[in-house]
Design a protein that fits this description.
- It is a single chain.
- The protein has helices spanning 3-6, 19-30, 48-60, 75-82, 93-96, 99-108, 131-142, 162-165, 178-191, 198-207, 212-223, 230-237, 242-253, 257-269, 274-294, 298-317, 326-338, 349-359, 362-372, 379-384, 400-405, 407-412, 417-424, 443-449, 452-466, 487-497; strands at 37-41, 88-92, 119-124, 148-154, 169-172, 426-432, 435-440, 471-476.
- It is of the alpha/beta class and 502 residues long.
- Bound molecules: zinc ion.
- Zinc ion binds at residues 61-63, 70-71, 73-74, 76-77.
Length: 502
């Protein structure tokens, strides 16, 4: 017996994920308010048919337990479990489009159940039914006999006619979270006395896009080969070596197109899946993006965001390309030759000002970066994190990014707090030699801060932190509308590419 069947949940307690559905269904079962037609939507392997069978058991259980649970001991529970309950009818619409089955269903549905209290029809991949079959099904759903229940499951809801959907109570099954998948895989491995590396389980979980059935199938395939190592998992999944990923990243940072192209070709020659390589590379870039945000490194972030955008586009083109590796090669060329070399540059003061104006002020920028990384919420620790790429400390004279990086510390040296608040409302307009120009958006804060004593205390704070003399001037300006995307906005956009999970 396959591990998937062996560990298929026999009760709602062991159903993985889908808490929202579990709770609603158990309540309905408890209150005996089960709907006569359900539509389960969601990706493959997320528990749709498993849940359907659990409902069938609970509806028919002869000794129902508390809170809607079934006993797993009575005749109907046991025969449903073994697949021998004649009143539990499963139809796979994908295999023959259901014409005969639905006709049969229409003919027999009026007859009372023979073994159980109710007949339960589970129609899997219901979107595959023919138009005629859908019409026949619709007539049945319009007036179902009291003893009949329908559970329709689909991976493609948009292909199910609206007339059918409107007759059903609809549940959306979610992709199962990686942590939950890993837990389940580890549980099964332990039950089966399999030795495993933690990373191997994580790799399996990451590769299945939230589908538990696929995850368990991979575990099953690999379980016969002894220890479950990360290496074995990667090999079996055709997952690219992390070294190739890191080398590609470095070659892009170095703008070394020849090396970048060689890596892409090597991956292709090894027969590895280019789609998978691109996905793994994007995951790696995402990690780098988070690190860059964490390090408050705007210039690194821009380069990484460009890489993410270009490689996301390239990945979409792999399958339709005549030469499979070509889209990735073009991506390498684009990054090496078209993206301006921003890693070694200090941020342009004008751009910096625009970004800050867009977001209100320097304080906001710092806060937003801190907010994006919940584990490092202390601004001090963010400031101390060194960027991964390029110089971490610029030599004198001061640059706007120097000032931004230490802004929090500078603010802390400004007293009284009311004046500090006013200073927070300013942006750095420019730094020329040692002359820093701050710009205020409101006259109120400008007038409050623009006093010799406060400017002097700011200059002292800068001297204390950077050990350099600076002259500060303040100016007042109306905020300009600016539609240019800031790095933070671009980060959010990039997050959407990854499904919004940080
Ligand atoms: Zn039972």
């Amino acid at each position: 017996m396959s591990l998937y069947l062996k560990y298929r949940p026999k009760d709602f307690d062991n159903l993985i994920g889908q808490e929202h559905i579990k709770t609603t269904l158990l309540n309905a079962l408890k209150e005996k308010k089960i709907s006569h037609a359900y539509l389960f939507c969601g990706p493959r392997g997320t528990g749709k048919t498993t849940t359907a069978r659990l409902i069938a058991k609970s509806i028919n259980c002869q000794n129902p337990l508390e809170f809607g649970h079934h006993c797993n001991e009575c005749f109907t529970c046991k025969s449903a479990q073994e697949g021998s309950l004649v009143d539990l009818i499963e139809i796979d619409a994908a295999s023959n489009r259901g014409i005969d089955e639905i006709r049969d269903l229409r003919e027999k549905i009026r007859f009372a159940p023979s073994q159980a209290r109710a007949k339960v029809y589970i129609i899997d991949e219901v979107h595959m039914l023919t138009k005629e079959a859908f019409n026949a099904l619709l007539k049945t759903l319009e007036e179902p006999p009291a003893h009949a229940y329908f559970i329709l499951a689909t991976t493609e809801t948009h292909k199910v006619p609206a007339t059918i959907i409107s007759r059903c109570q609809k549940f959306d099954f979610h992709r199962i979270a990686i942590a939950e998948l890993v837990n389940r895989l580890k549980y099964i491995a332990e039950q089966e006395n399999l030795n495993y590396e933690e990373e191997a389980m994580e790799q399996i979980a990451k590769s299945v896009k939230g589908g538990l059935r696929d995850a368990i199938s991979i575990l099953d395939q690999l379980s016969s080969e002894g220890n479950l190592t990360l290496d074995k998992v990667k090999k079996s999944l055709g997952i690219s070596d992390i070294a190739a990923i890191e080398n590609l990243f470095q070659s892009l940072i170095d703008k070394n197109a020849i090396k970048g192209l060689a890596i892409i070709n090597q991956i292709y020659q090894q027969g590895l899946d280019l789609n998978d390589f691109a996905r793994t590379f994007l995951e790696y870039l995402r990690q780098k993006m988070i690190e860059a945000v964490n390090a408050n490194s705007v210039s690194n972030l821009n380069l990484i965001l460009s890489m993410i955008e270009i490689f996301s586009q390239a990945k979409l083109k792999i399958n339709s390309s005549v030469i499979p590796q070509l889209p990735l090669e073009i991506a390498v060329m684009e990054i090496c030759h078209r993206i301006p070399d921003i890693k070694a540059q200090s941020p342009n003061p004008n751009n910096l000002d625009k970004n800050n104006t867009h977001h209100g002020n320097t304080q906001n920028l710092t806060n937003k970066m801190a907010d994006q990384h919940p584990t490092t919420s202390n601004p001090q620790s963010i400031m101390n994190n060194q960027p991964l790429i390029g110089p971490s400390d610029s030599p004198l004279p001061l640059t706007p990014s120097d000032l931004l990086n230490k802004w929090e510390q500078i603010l802390n040296l400004i007293d009284p707090p009311a004046i500090r608040q006013s200073l927070k409302q300013s942006n750095i307009k420019e730094i020329k030699d040692s002359n820093i120009t701050l710009i205020f958006n409101t006259a109120f804060h400008f007038e409050k801060f623009n006093k010799a004593a406060h400017i002097c205390s700011l200059e002292n704070a800068i001297k204390q932190i950077f050990d350099t003399e600076a002259k500060v001037t303040c100016s007042l300006e109306k905020p300009a509308e600016n539609s240019e995307q800031s790095p933070i906005d671009k980060t959010k956009e990039a997050m959407d590419i990854f499904g919004g999970q940080w």
